[in-house]
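Structure in, sequence out. Go:
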């Protein structure tokens, strides 16, 4: 039993040299305001199945019956070679922004691909975890000194999920 306790303690004490960066509160609030005015590019949906509508602000899956807003978002600024605009979700009701520093969001332990970018927003690497722990993949991407930030994206649809910064 002692070996198991030591392993659990080591996992608890492990800290990472990165910070998860969810969608800014200002962007989520702007999406809610736009949806409330009936903007055509901000669609209100009711979640009909679990693990299908990930909120980019609180980094949790919306529960069946919850309302979400579907809208487009550019995670890399326009005018850059790797800029792309794609669909994302946020809860229709205000939710608390994910703010845990040294912890990976538990709702997204699988189904993500990670892209590393340099300071000029050029993609310099991309990794599918393929069974590896996402934290280890991110740490490895940050071993490259040119990596300025990392993005997590859906493996199935390619949609932006959250950013990751070195700390």
């Amino acid at each position: 039993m002692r070996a198991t306790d030591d392993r659990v303690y080591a996992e608890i004490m492990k800290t990472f040299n990165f910070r998860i960066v969810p969608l800014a509160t200002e962007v989520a609030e702007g999406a809610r305001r736009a949806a409330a005015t009936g903007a055509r590019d901000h669609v209100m949906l009711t979640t009909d199945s679990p693990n299908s509508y990930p909120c980019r602000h609180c980094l949790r899956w919306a529960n069946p019956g919850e309302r979400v807003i579907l809208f487009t978002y550019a995670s890399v600024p326009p005018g850059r070679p790797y800029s792309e605009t794609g669909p994302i979700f946020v809860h229709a009701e205000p939710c608390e922004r994910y703010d845990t520093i040294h912890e990976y969001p538990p709702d997204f332990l699988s189904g993500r691909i990670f892209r590393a970018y340099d300071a000029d927003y050029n993609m310099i690497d991309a990794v599918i975890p393929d069974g590896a722990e996402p934290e280890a993949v991110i740490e490895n991407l940050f071993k490259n000194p040119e990596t300025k930030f990392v993005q997590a994206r859906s493996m199935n649809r390619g949609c932006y999920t959250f950013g990751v910064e070195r700390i």
